[in-house]
Amino acid sequence: MNPLAWLIGLVLPACGFPAAEGLPPAQPIDVAHIVRPSTPNTALAAPDGFAPLPELATPHYPVPPDRLFALVGEVAASQPRTFTAAIYPAQLQGQYVARSAIFNFPDLIMVQVQPDGADGSGLIVYSRSVYGQSDLGVNRKRIVAWLAALQAKLPPSSER
User: Fold this and answer.
1) Total structural domains in the chain?
2) Which residues form the domain of 16?
3) Angle between helices 138-153 and 65-78 (to 10 degrees)
């Protein structure tokens, strides 16, 4: 870890740790009861009709839920400075920590796959900052990047 991150860790403790360390243990999130803060340091992507209202809509994925969950896990593992905090296979939920390059600020990302019709799936992605009032759009950009990476992993529609 760079010395600047260690120094910031004296004031913002979670910045002084690597990977998913230094944060409270991850617990499953009940996606039906997500309460977003009033600060603009979160982003949410979910299917149409989801509450709270997401700023990004996720499509219907014509793949089985377990397959989509595995693909989302591959996407998370491929992201820079992103680490697994917890995986809840029974809920098809994964939680990740993404760290900023210089200051090691942690952001928390939760993904949940839900069955959506016959052999289809829905996806919820909730990304939020641990520190700060604003994230300068980082959480939204992250979700957009993850969704694009996921789309690239899906087989062409004729092969599904």
Assistant:
1) 1
2) 3-159
3) 120
